[in-house]
Design a protein that fits this description.
The chain is mainly α. Helix content is 45%, strand content 6%. This is Endonuclease-reverse transcriptase.
Length: 230
């Protein structure tokens, strides 16, 4: 065991733990498999981290993305294959609020303006910019990824720990007063009914996922399929 890389995160009393006469450090959050694990405000922290990493990836590819001599089709393909996946990595399990989605959309709009060498003070409409770049809309892509994940869990014949975590309903406490944290199945992009968590409507979810995958090129325009349709 590498004690310098070993950390402990706990939501109970912190007791000193020693390995090879070295005390293991307690942390409030850590990165595991590319995502932040934290008991508090995890989605906000992960979205901020995704935005930061996306800009790092963009500037690492600036020789191509900022080059005026390279065709826009090449830049669009590079964005959709290298930059966009960095932005939405792990989005299938996010419970995004409107402010979270706004951060991601703002990041993508900033990248588009940077590609076209357009400043905010130029006051160009986002629709006009998108017509020039033709990149894949981040909100549409996240909806698509979430529907894929819903279909994957609905088709799963064996009970896996991912299903147990999604279906877990703690009954040993009460939620605090006021507006509660957004749960995954209540996100507007999926609008998963509570009945799905008890094993119903699997076929309905299969057909919804199929409909989204057949959505075709309309996804690039920013159009979406709402989760309330049947």
């Amino acid at each position: 065991m590498n004690t310098s890389k070993t950390k402990i995160m706990s939501n109970t009393n912190r007791e000193k733990i020693y390995v090879n006469q070295l005390e293991i450090e307690y942390v409030n959050e850590y990165v595991y498999l590319g995502q932040i694990i934290s008991p508090n405000d995890q989605t906000n922290k992960e979205v901020d981290r995704r935005v930061c990493n996306t800009w790092k990836r963009f500037w690492a590819l600036k020789d191509v993305m900022k080059n005026r001599d390279i065709p826009m089709t090449v830049k669009t393909k590079l964005h959709d294959t290298c930059i966009l996946p960095c932005m939405i990595y792990g989005c299938q399990t996010w419970a995004l609020t409107k402010s979270n989605m706004k951060k991601l959309e703002t990041c993508q709009h900033g990248i588009e303006r940077s590609i076209l060498h357009i400043k905010r003070r130029d006051r160009q409409r986002l629709v006009t910019i998108r017509a020039k770049t033709k990149i894949y809309d981040v909100k549409t892509k996240i909806r698509e990824q979430k529907w894929r994940w819903c279909g994957h869990m609905a088709r799963n014949k064996f009970r896996k720990w991912t299903n147990d975590i999604t279906d877990w309903y703690p009954r040993d406490g009460k939620r605090k007063r006021g507006r509660q944290h957004l749960r995954w199945y209540r996100w507007e992009g999926c609008a998963v009914p509570r009945s799905r968590l008890h094993g119903y409507h699997h076929l309905a979810y299969f057909f919804r996922e199929t409909a989204l995958l057949c959505f075709g090129k309309k996804g690039k325009t920013g159009s979406v399929i709402t989760g309330t349709e049947t």
